[in-house]
Write a structure and sequence with these properties.
Layout (H helix, E strand, L loop, with lengths): L1 E7 L7 H11 L7 E7 L3 H11 L3 E6 L17 E6 L4 H5 L11 E4 L10 E3 L19 E7 L7 H11 L3 E7 L9 H10 L6 E6 L5 H9 L3 E4 L12 H8 L3 E4 L13 E2 L4 H6 L1 H17 L3 H7 L3
Parallel strand pairs: 1-2, 1-3, 3-4, 4-5, 5-6, 7-8, 7-10, 8-9, 10-11, 11-12
Helix pairs in contact: 4-5, 6-7
Amino acid sequence: MKNILFINHGLAKSCGVYAQGVRHFDSLVKSKKFNFIYCEVNSFDELKNNYNKFNPAAILYNYMPIVLPWLNGNIKNLNTKNVCIIHNITQELINNGQFRYGTLFDFYITLDKSLVVNGDIFKTNRPVYCVDFVEKSLNLENINIGTFGFPFLHKGFQDVVKLVNDNFEKATINLHMTDSYFCNNETEKILSLCYSKISKSGIKLNYTNEYLSEMEMVKYLQSNDINCLLYQNINGVGVSAAIDYLISAQRPILISKSQQFRNFYKDLPLWPDFDLKYIIENYKYERNRVQNIYDNCVNTPFETEKIIENYV
C-alpha cells in the first residue's frame, strides 16, 4: 500500500485544530487502501526527514498558519501531492476564490458539509469517536447541563448559565474550560460573568479546568443530561470542532445560531428558538435525534480516503 503522511503540529494538545487532526487521523488509520502515518512536525527539516523515511504518495497537512508557521514553498520541492485540511473556510471565500494559501497545496479538504464546493476543494465527513452508548436516567430533581471549550468570551458560557438559571429552579452547570496554547485566555472575566448570572439558590456552577484526553472529554459530556454550546455569532470563520465531542457523547444537544454550527442548523434545536425546558419535555426525542446523527457519522465510509484515491 502507498504511504500517506498525516501532519499535525506538536506544540500543544490544548488546541482545537490539533484535536480535530487526531480524530481525523483516527478515522483513517484502519484504511485498507493506504497506509496512513501520523507525524507531529514543527519544522520543515522534521517534515523532510519523514518524507525521506516514508516516501509518501501524498501528505495531508492539518493546517492553519498559526499552528504550522514554518510551512512555506519548500514543500513544493517534495515529489508528492500536498493536501491541505482547511479549517477557516466559508462560502464567501470559496465563491471569491480566496480560500487558497497561494500555490502551496495541490488541493483542499474541508469538514464543513454545508459548503457548496467545486474545483480543488472537496468535502469530507465529521470525525467522531466510536463509543458505546451509556444509558443515563434523567433526574428532574437535579438536572446536569454541560458545556466546555477554551475561555473566550464569544463562547457564550455566561449565556449558558443565564439560560439554566432562567429555565430551572434547581440544576447543576458543569463548565469545563481549558486554557488555549495559542490565544489569550479570558478565564477570570468569564467566571465572573457566569457567577453574576446566577440568582437562584438551587443553581450550582461546577467549574473544572484540567486537560482531558479525547475519550475523557467524551465521558465528561456523557455524564451530563444535556450538553449546550451557545457561541455568539462571528462571521467569516470555519465550523466548530467542539460539536464532534457532543455527538460522540450521544446526549441531547442545544446549540446557538452561531455560524460555527451552520453545518447542524437542520439537525439540532437552535437557541433562542428552543430552550432547555423544551429539551427536558422532549428528552427521548432529542436523545434519539443525536443518536441518529452519531450513527450516520460512524456508519458512513470516511470520504477523505476516496478523495486521496482520486489523486494518487
